[in-house]
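Render this sequence as a predicted structure.
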Amino acid sequence: MKHLKKMTSASLALLVIATAAIAANNAPDSVVSLPVAQLKWQEVPGTQGAVGYANTEGDILSKGKGFYSAFVTFKAGTDNGLHLHSQALPTVVMAGTFYAVIDGKRTEYPAGSFYNLPARQVHESGCAAGEDCLLFQYQDNNFDLVPVKG
């Protein structure tokens, strides 16, 4: 349990540090307060329930209409296949173990980890088997996933 508390503290610290980099450009006009009971979870279309999200600011699926931040869930064992994103994708892993495969090398990101994929970085990613993943992600514009042929 002590280790879990340290990991949760580390996750929260990473979240604060990661969002500080963009906060100046996307500062809210008023307090943003979303206790967990107020999050509105939705299924990502076309994922058959394997991927869900809860926006915290903006809209992750806004089709290019500005900044968003969101919690994202992946069912354990979900693989996204080979793809890229048109802009950098900072991510904090809050639960589970997320992974990315870049140039054939798999890196696992357990809860408490942070990564920031550069724009147009071809990779495969997903949630390792065993435990569902909870991520926190944000971008200056909407999320996209562009499939790439291997």
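Summary. The longest strand covers residues 51-57. Residues 1-7, 12-24 have pLDDT under 50 and may be disordered.
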